[in-house]
């Protein structure tokens, strides 16, 4: 037997009232449904009264009106979910009152409250959030792929560890292990040869949790996931089991790392959201971009440099974030490479997932700060055939393969370089605020950690 669903219906004045009333009666005739209220969201074509009390009397149930009939009462919808403890918001409206953009805005607000948003041919569900952690925790989520989420996660984990919070990381990826895998980054010496051994055993040794372990030198727990929904849920993941393992290890703080735009299905005390300034602005300001932004306690905007973005675009994104989530701190950043080994005086082939448009900036940074000569670059770590072609082009002219630990970094870049007798050095990417007008990034991350600990202790 189904549980009773408490439903708030969205209605408009473009429908003839008896038609709307009939639709609600059909809903209420279902044994598992209780329509507790309706919210009038606009439209006047077939509205025969502007008196809310008369409309409600004709409807035969509570009807709630917003302050302006020409504006969708988004906040009122949220209030009604809370007031009636509603499980579902059922949309009985249509064009022209609602269009796709307005419906996604409603969906973002409804699922944020933990309710379903349902219509004749659609349903958006709230995020899955298992209440598992028995320690303070935060999650790091992104608005898309290739925006630097793992780089920021590794940076944050290292910072949190260096400041004595004793964290571990639970990461999920599309190449993660069948059973959650503990990698003791705090104990293992993770060399190129060691990663090749793992790869030869069938392990995806460039998966996010290996990168976290290598770059942060802390205990990581690797999980897998498949599929990603529009609001961030996944079809399958073993992260729930990974979270249970994190409860048992000796760490005192847990960092849950998302995968692309997929969000860890674990309830945490705080959230850090990453937004790529290189993304189409439509994907940030529409669909479920606002939902992800609304979750954040801290927003880190990445890729904030030309040609990936422009000052006007970055300003527009920052203003939109402030509008959606005025309580979240915003820091706009760029990434700069940091080798995990000495490359001074050496000829280097640099393999990266960064777009080719920023190649010159990255090369200059490496040469000026680490005393190397970058003979060649390849942006094709995520394209094995093109990566191999670039390696063949430069391999006889370099001493070192400098590579990020991404995609084909182990089974192609490391393998081919070791076989050719080259030294392999792995490279981190460090987020840096674009100027000193922004809050300090280190301090802001640690404030989130302190806030997570405070919220956890109040439970």
Structural summary, described in words:
Keywords: ATP-binding, Cytoplasm, Ligase, Nucleotide-binding. It is found in: Cytoplasm. Belongs to the cyclic 2,3-diphosphoglycerate synthetase family. This protein is elongated. It has three domains: 5-124, Rossmann fold (3-Layer(aba) Sandwich), CATH 3.40.50; 137-336 and 434-458, Rossmann fold; 337-430, 3-Layer(aba) Sandwich (Rossmann fold), CATH 3.40.50.2300. The protein has 459 residues and is an alpha/beta fold. It has helices at residues 17-28, 52-59, 74-84, 100-112, 149-162, 192-200, 208-216, 239-248, 281-285, 289-295, 311-324, 359-370, 384-394, 409-419, 441-458; strands spanning 5-11, 33-40, 63-65, 88-91, 116-119, 122-124, 137-142, 167-173, 181-184, 219-226, 236-237, 253-257, 270-276, 298-302, 329-339, 347-351, 373-378, 400-404, 423-433. Helix 5 packs parallel to helix 7 (208-216). The protein is built from 15 helices and 19 strands. The model has no long low-confidence stretch (mean pLDDT 92).
